[in-house]
Amino acid sequence: MPNPRQLLPGLTLLLPLAVAPPAAAAPDPHVRVLQMNLCNSGHAACWADKPKAPNQDPAKETINQAVIKINDLATKPHAITLNEICSDDLNGLKERIGFQGDSFFQVYKGDKPYECGGGRNGGGIYGSAILTREPLRKPYSTYRFEKLFAAQYTGSDEQRVMGCRKMPWGTVCTAHTNQLKKGAEYIHRLKVTGEQCVELMTEAVAFADGAPLIVAGDLNLEWNALAEQEKLRECAVGHTRRSDGGKQHVITTKTFVETGVSDMSDWTDHPTFWAKLK
After folding, report:
1. Cα dihedral angle (42, 199, 77, 63), rounded to 10 degrees?
2. CATH of the domain at 37
3. pLDDT at 49 > cutoff 80
4. Does residue 1 lie within any of the structural domains?
5. Could you tell me if residue 38 is inside a domain?
6. Which superkingdom heads the taxonomic lineage of this protein's source (predicted)?
7. What is the number of domains present in the chain?
8. Fewer Cβ atoms within 10 A, N terminus or C terminus of the chain?
9. Containing domain of residue 108, as a range?
10. What SS3 class is residue 272?
């Protein structure tokens, strides 16, 4: 019987060679955050400028536009920080962008939660929020932090707030600090806004407890205004900071790789601002 390997003299049956499986892709070392102020409370001046087509709900359409911006990103952020948003706006938002976690941080009016209203039909409570790809670990009290600022503008009963989420890749925090206005109130407002920014960073650092920290929000301070720049320097001391060219900032212990903005001028008075960090 012929040897199966030797079919004809000088011809050898070639057996298939073992092929090594493809190497697994290296994990992405970057952390991405997206900051958005949606001006969606119904109280702010920009609310009146939102387009209103027949039978169109500006609050829902603003969220629709936010979803489009988020889903258009080549890589989804690890966290999205949101200012001037209402609790009802979050319903379904995280599902539409494929996120699993959310925390809402409510602003107070006096000693009661500040309800959304003005030019919109309800919407729940006004405040800020953080969305994350992953759900928050338990117990929530260990991985979530919320605090009313000690410094508040005395010319208003609006009580502003900060909040954080502690994730496996680091701690992310947000706040919408007191708004500045030119005129007689400016110096007082600037003092309050600066104190809120310092408190935001102090509390965020303590809560992060040595983990990488990313703070993103509308801090109502502009680098190109010298008095406000000084407040930003005091606030961000020991950290790295970048802005959208206006009032939105990311302050972090990590290293900036890239930042960018995307216009949403029809729906809010701030662009989206994203940062890629390492």
Report:
1. 0
2. 3.60.10.10
3. yes
4. no
5. yes
6. Bacteria
7. 1
8. N
9. 29-277
10. strand
Q: Within 13 A of 120's CA, how many CA atoms are on the CB side?
A: 31
- Res. 205: pLDDT tops 80: yes
Q: Any idea what the Cα angle at residue 278 is, between residues 199 and 217, rounded to 5°?
A: 35
Higher pLDDT, 18 or 92: 92
Give this prediction's pTM.
0.90
Tokens of 47: 């609310």
Mean pLDDT of 139-145: 98
Q: Residue 54's pLDDT is what?
A: 85
**Residue 238, Ramachandran bin (φ over 0: left; ψ between -120 and 50: alpha; else beta):** left
Place of tokens 């680098």: 223
Instruction: Look up residue 50 and give its two tokens.
Output: 């939102």
- The predicted model gives 253-267 an average pLDDT of 96
Q: Which of 151, 160, 99 has its CA nearest to residue 130?
A: 99
In a domain, 255, yes or no: yes
**Type of residue found at 276:** K
* pLDDT value of residue 153: 96
- Report the distance separating Cα 79 and Cα 140, nearest Å: 17
The count of residues in the chain is 278
Angle of the 226-236 helix axis to the 186-208 helix axis, nearest 10: 20
Is 6 inside any structural domain? no
Among 41-45, 118-122, 253-257, name the one with the lowest average pLDDT. Answer: 118-122
Quick one: average pLDDT of 8-37? 72
Among 119, 129, 115, 117, which residue's Cα sits nearest to residue 58?
119
